[in-house]
Amino acid sequence: MKRMTELIFTAGFALVAAVLLCACSDKLDIQQVYEFDLATLPVQTTIVEGGEAEIRCQLVRSGRYEETEYFIRYFQPTGKGELRLEDGTVLLPNDLYSLPGETFRLYYRSLCTDQQTIDIYIVDSFNQTVTKSFSFNNETEEGVENPEQPAP
């Protein structure tokens, strides 16, 4: 009986050792690419020529890989305006800039009286892209005559 117990114990030990050896892998799986999005607070939809709209942004990441870099670019399909970062850097359309952080502010200044739209692109170092669009309608300042309309 003692011999049988020793045999079962040895067979069990060998089986556990075999399972552990087969389950081990020398390759460490590190995930580098994570989905992300750009969250913003509500943004005004009307603006006067020369006026400025603030866009408060936060990068929302589903995971974290420390070496991932994020970039920003924008395009303006309608109207004319200027977009700048909170540090004063004026962004040129379609140029790529390093994102200043996970939480940042953008400032859009209207340079026309037409309807205006800007498309903001956030790109990571793995070429994933998130796009957000903002539209602004022209609003004339009260008490200021619009030069295109004759006075009554």
Describe this structure in words.
The structure is a single chain. By secondary structure, the protein is mainly beta. Helix content is 14%, strand content 41%. The protein has one helix at 2-23; strands spanning 36-40, 46-47, 52-61, 70-78, 81-85, 90-91, 97-98, 103-110, 116-124, 129-138. The chain has a five-stranded antiparallel β-sheet, with no helix packed on it. The radius of gyration is 29 Å and the shape is rod-shaped. It starts with a helix and ends in a 14-residue tail after the last strand. This is DUF3872 domain-containing protein.
Task: Label this structure with key terms.
single chain; 152 residues; mainly beta; five-stranded antiparallel β-sheet; 1 helix
Write a concise synopsis of the structure shown.
Helix content is 14%, strand content 41%. The protein is built from 1 helix and 10 strands. A hairpin with a 4-residue loop joins strand 5 (81-85) and strand 6.
